[in-house]
Amino acid sequence: MKVKPFLAVSALTAALLAPMTASADDNLLTGDVRLACEAVLCLSSGNRPSECAPSIKRYFSINHKKLSDTINARRSFLNLCPSDNAQGMPQLIDAIANGAGRCDAAALNRRGHYTGSSRDGTRRFIVNTQKPDYCKAYENHAWTRVATTKLEPIYCNYTTGDTPWRKKRVEKYQCGQKWVDVQ
Description:
single chain; alpha+beta
């Protein structure tokens, strides 16, 4: 008989204290929501400390067959962060979703086209010298501090023909450009 009142008091105490413990945990983000908020912070900054590794890994693990589907899925992931409706946040999330991982020198140097065959029959890749609009938006957004890129000339050697009255000579000329990361 004494057990029933004890259980009733215990249940009542637990019921009264439960909101207090729950309210203390309401301020903490967990799961994908936490990773999304961390990803927004980490992808907006130029340096990425080791604390960013899980959120960055989760963000870049989102891949689909089409690039547009990948970008939309990554945008949806970033929109899990509760502050996505704050003023300027939708533009920041769009800039990150479109630009993160696609605006460094290595990615920009993959954009371009091939020209016709050269003298030895090989095709030459020409890097696109215009920075895409999504990179401009990502690098120039007021809330991002990411490494920018710039164009640098590439110099190639051209060997002139060997004739009896002239020695072989190597001349340097600008044969293209490449993107490099600016520190």
